[in-house]
Design brief:
By secondary structure, the protein is of the alpha/beta class. It is built from 9 helices and 12 strands. The longest helix is centred in the middle third of the chain and has 14 residues. Bound molecules: iron/sulfur cluster.
């Protein structure tokens, strides 16, 4: 793809190749593009989304921030070809906070033929509705107050455009306790998306309470898949 002048610049935290550790596509080989910045403030967040003046590309080069979407996509294509990975996971932080840059980056990466996988906290639905048409797969968190100190909103979930619902799978990370009021809310959120399944993780990868939780969802017509966080088991990024 020829280089052209572009306007959007973004801040990247890191770019690396690894195995998807969560959700429906666990085990897939992806190139992760981690964008800087997040305003959600989850308690216990262990993701480094800080802004810096440079970022690492797969341990082979260091690039300067900010960077244009066009330049980054060109460098990525030079580094790894679309047919050698499952997809590019655009993650954060919260990637939707750099929406204009994100849209441009997706535009160029799609032009090179990559499948685009977007990971989002689910707190910026208006922005998700703008970007969702451009991507192939959306990993959407239902964050719960008990686990994160912030909680997803049914009103917001209800605003998601029908056209992008099919691209979404829902992921939930729980601590080892469970509140059936929250369980009801999860069921309502899934119903708003037309989903009858979701992917369940536990903070500490424990299994001692998951059968009770899983029984609850199956008995309410929802398939729940417990997936240990593979990247933590493998001690990789
Ligand atoms: S949304 Fe993700 S990156 Fe942002 S504070 Fe929460 S866990 Fe951390």
């Amino acid at each position: 793809m020829p280089l052209q002048n572009t306007s959007s610049e973004g801040f990247i935290k890191e770019v690396f190749t690894s195995i998807q550790g969560e959700g429906k596509y666990v085990g897939a080989l992806q190139l992760f593009v981690r964008l800087s910045g997040c305003s959600i403030g989850c308690k216990g967040c262990d993701t480094d989304y800080s802004f810096s003046d440079s970022f690492d590309l797969d341990g082979i080069s260091v690039l300067s921030n900010p960077i244009t979407a066009e330049k980054l996509s060109y460098i990525i294509y030079d580094h790894i070809k679309p047919n050698s990975i499952h997809s590019i996971s655009i993650t954060g932080g919260e990637p939707l906070l750099q929406k204009d840059f994100l849209k441009e980056l997706i535009f160029y990466l799609k032009g090179y033929g990559y499948r685009i996988f977007l990971e989002t906290s689910g707190f910026f639905i208006d922005r998700l509705n703008e970007v969702g048409d451009m991507v192939d797969i959306i990993s959407l968190d239902f964050k719960l107050g008990e686990s994160f100190g912030v909680e997803f909103s049914l009103d917001e979930i209800g605003k998601i455009k029908d056209e992008i619902k099919d691209k979404i799978y829902v992921k939930i990370v729980l601590k080892d306790s469970f509140d059936f009021v929250v369980g009801r809310k999860i069921l309502d959120g899934l119903a708003l998306l037309g989903k009858t399944e979701f992917y369940l993780h536990f903070f500490d990868n424990c299994i001692k309470t998951n059968k009770i939780i899983m029984n609850y969802f199956y008995s309410n017509g929802v398939d729940v898949f417990y997936v240990p966080q593979l990247h933590k088991l493998l001690e990789i990024k």
